[in-house]
Amino acid sequence: MQQAVLVTEIGKSLTLGSRAIPEPADGQVQIKLTTQQVAPHDTYGHDLGLFIADRLPFILGTNIAGTVTSLPASPSPFKIGDVVFGLGSPFYPTPEMSGLQQYALLSTESCAKIPQGCTPGDMVTFPVNATTSFAALFDVKGFGFPAPPPFPPSKEEFDAKELTVLVIGGGSAVGKLAIQYAKLAGIGTVIAIASVGRTEELKALGATNIIDRHALPEDIRAEVKDITGQEGVEYIYDCVSWDYDFAISLLSKTKKGVLLTLHPAEKAIELAKEMRPSARVQFIVGNADFIQPHTKAFWEALPIWVKEGGLKVGKVRVVEGLTLEGIEEGLASYRDGSAVLPVVVHPNSI
Ligand SMILES: NC(=O)c1ccc[n+]([C@@H]2O[C@H](COP(=O)([O-])OP(=O)(O)OC[C@H]3O[C@@H](n4cnc5c(N)ncnc54)[C@H](OP(=O)(O)O)[C@@H]3O)[C@@H](O)[C@H]2O)c1
Where is the Enoyl reductase (ER) domain (predicted)? Predict the structure, then answer.
C-alpha cells in the first residue's frame, strides 16, 4: 500500500488516505515519485472539480518526476532505475496517473529520461506547461510554426524574423515557455504583456518588448502599435485571461489573425466573429492527444531543449512529504492571479 492525497469532496479539505500501488499496463511505467508540481488546474480540480468531479475520490497532480520501479511484461523503452519526468493525466479513469501519491503510472509516450546534469526537481515543472506552449506555437491547431531542432527543418519557406508574437501573461509559467520557444524558433518580435518588474527576466528568456500588464487597455494597444508599426498583431497567445475582449481587440484588423486561449474559448469564438471575422480562435489543451502525431518527437526534444539551455529551469518552493497544509497552500497560491513560486511536493520524503 502507499499514501495518497485525496480529493473526496469538491471544494473541501484534502485528506490523506492509503491505496494500492498501481501496476503498469502495456505502454506504461510505474514511478516512485521523487517530486510533483502543484499547478493551477489542480486548484480548479480541487475547487471546482475540473476534470475529476465524476470520479471522486480522485488525486490531483500531473507534473511528475521519479524513478522507474516496475515495467509491464511487454518491451519498454525504459528500464528499472531510470529517472524520468512526465505528464500524468486527470482524464485517466482511475487516479493512477496522478502525482500526489507515492507511486504513479506514466504513459511511455509522455515521459522522458531526465537529462544528465539535471534533477527531477529541475524537470518537474515542464510536463504540462511545456506541452501546452509547444502546442500553441508548433501544432497546426496553434500557430503552426516549424518546431526548432531536433525537429526536422520545415520544407516550406518560413521567415520567422518577420513575425510578431504577442504573449498575454508573459510572466506565467506557460508564457515564459512560449517566449523561450519563440526565441528557439527565431521569431523576430516577441512582445510580452506582464508586470514590468519582470522586464529583465523576460528579456533574458527572449522577449523583445515588455508591456506593463497593469496599463490601460488603450495604452497597451497604442504601445503594440508603436512596437510593430501596425494596428494589431497576427499571432496572440493569451495564457491567463478568462474573458477575451481585450485579446481580440489586439488582433490585426487587416490580416488573418490567430488567438490561442488556455481557457475554454466558446465565447471568444463568438466575439471574434463580430470583432475580427477573419480571425481564428483556438483553445489549446496541453495533453498528449492534442499534440499528436508529435507527442513522441516532443518528448525526445524536450530534454534536449532543457539540457542545451533553450528552456530554463524555474525556481520552486518545496514541500517535504504528502503534507496536506503545504499542498493546500500551493493550491491556494493560484487563486488570485498574483506571482507564484510553484510548490513542488516530495511525496516519498520523511
Ligand atoms: N489549457 C491547458 O491545457 C492549460 C495548460 C497549462 C496552463 N493552463 C492555464 O493557464 C493559466 C496559467 O498557468 P501557469 O501555470 O502558467 O500560471 P502561473 O505561472 O501561476 O501564472 C501566474 C502569473 O500570471 C500572470 N498574470 C496573471 N493575471 C494576468 C493578467 N491579467 N495579465 C497578464 N499576466 C497575468 C502574473 O504575471 P506577472 O508576474 O507578470 O504579473 C502571474 O505571476 C492557468 O489558468 C492554467 O490553468 C491551461
Answer: 11-345
180 and 214 fall within a common domain? yes
Residue 117 lies in a domain: yes
Pocket flag, ligand 1, residue 172 (CB < 6 Å): yes
Substitution candidate for ligand 1 out of 139, 174, 242, 340 with most atoms within 8 A of CB: 174
Q: Could you read off the pLDDT of 172-186 as tens digits, one per residue?
A: 999 999 999 999 999
Ligand 1 centre to CA of 322 (Å) is 25
pLDDT digits (tens, 9 = 90+) for 109-162: 999 999 999 999 999 999 999 999 999 999 999 999 999 999 998 888 889 999
Mean pLDDT of 90-103: 96
Cα 139 to Cα 210: distance, rounded to the nearest angstrom: 25
C-alpha span between 132 and 136 (Å, rounded): 6
Determine the structural domain holding residue 80 and report its residue range.
2-125+313-346
- The grid cell for 105 is 503510472
Report DSSP letters for 306-328, one per residue. HHTTSSPPPP-EEEESS-HHHHH
If you average pLDDT over every residue of the chain, what do you get? Answer: 95
Indicate whether 66 and 159 sit together in one domain. no
Phi and psi at 190, nearest 5°, equal -125, 105
Atom 35 of ligand 1, residue of closest alpha carbon: 169
Residue 21 maps to a domain: yes
Total domain count, the chain: 2
